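Protein in question kept underneath.
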Amino acid sequence: SHHLLWSLFSDSADRDRDFLWREHAPGEFYLLSAREPVDRHGFFDILPSKRYAPELQRGDRLRFELRVNATVSRSTGPSTRGARSDIVMHAIHGLHGDARAEARREAVQQVAVDWLSKQGGRHGFAVAELDVRAYEVLQVARSGASSATFGVLDLAGIVQVQEAARFCDVLLNGIGRAKAFGCGLMMVRRVQPVR
């Protein structure tokens, strides 16, 4: 899918990816970009674009959905750059067989809460509620190289804005890694007050 979606924005060979996307259903995508997508090949039925300029302030509560490749940097030795590791696989490293499968089920919720809370501290939000809807390990074939493997968490819940400018920045630029593969787009809507 990322090759197809890239075709909507690849107006020059040296263009950097400057859009976020998420597959909503097979063949149905959400896109967030500063530029209008251009379907030069006629692959898509593109709905009219809407301007996205969230107006948020401290204390706003937002319901969110997020597909994310959450990673942690682990040491590979002194004076070397840390290797990236999926947070769930990192939590169960060293376990084998049935113990590994059971630990994985138990670890998913806790490591997701810890990771997203740390991200919130960096990006101007606090996690009020979190539900891990799914966790899976994806493999993406690459021509001439071994396949890319990465973990994906589907998260939903409620966040509270702590610093609006930093939070808006993460909404526009994404969170986590593997953005080229449909991760990182945090979709939000206001929590309606109870009357």
In short: The beta strands are 19-25, 28-33, 61-68, 71-74, 83-86, 125-142, 145-161, 186-190.
